[in-house]
Write a structure and sequence with these properties.
This protein is of the alpha/beta class. It is built from nine helices and five strands.
Length: 203
């Protein structure tokens, strides 16, 4: 098992790295969720989306944990109160899924997760051992929420240098953009791949 937080500015390519991980996850069960600002106040919304494809495994974890998780994700009536039990439930559920093969959990735009979901996922990430679970998070630079405070392993995703940025433009658009225009685009994009491609597409 393992966990890594990819931290960087908006548009630097964190989501593209998660896409690359998913594309190279042959033989793994891929579970994915992206934080959405409009849902950041909806309790356990992100956890519901992440676990929905494997909800049938809830029946295979201890009853107390199963009930707490069902309440948390809206599958049973009640009020989600014991966050520790919910965290254990998610850990054991993912472990049960991993009994059938390794699991890859991709959590994009983690700065927009609702707080209870973020807390539960941080709880799980800190307790991974040998279950066969990999968790990758993308987190915007400057975020100081619960994932940042969990002190998970991090890797900073940096922008492209000028030469790299020009090479990307040539590979994507060929010789259709004059060299002086390419240099201007590279300068305005400030190393951000998303900005680089958006600006070039409208030139």
């Amino acid at each position: 098992s393992g966990v890594l937080v990819l931290r960087g500015d908006a548009g630097v390519g964190k989501s593209a790295l998660l896409d690359l991980a998913a594309d190279n996850a042959a033989g793994m069960r891929v579970l994915r969720v992206a934080g959405v600002e409009q849902e950041s106040e909806l309790t356990f919304a992100a956890l519901h989306e992440l676990l929905r494809p494997v909800a049938s495994h809830i029946d295979r974890i201890p009853d107390v944990q199963a009930h707490a998780l069902r309440v948390a994700v809206g599958l049973a009536p009640g009020v989600a109160e014991n966050r520790f039990v919910i965290g254990l439930a998610v850990l054991n559920l993912l472990g049960d899924v991993a009994n059938n093969g390794p699991v890859l959990c991709l959590v994009d735009d983690a700065q927009w997760l609702d707080q209870p979901s973020a807390n539960a996922l941080a709880f799980v990430a800190r307790r991974l051992e040998a279950e066969g679970i990999v968790m990758l998070f993308s987190l915007r630079e400057g975020d100081v929420g619960s994932l940042a405070r969990a002190r998970l392993p991090e890797r900073t995703v940096r922008g492209l240098g000028p030469a790299e940025a020009e090479r990307v433009l040539v590979e994507r658009f060929g010789a259709g953009i004059a060299p002086e225009v390419r240099r201007s685009i590279v300068e305005s994009a400030q190393g951000l791949p998303l900005a680089l491609l958006v600006v070039a597409a409208v030139v």
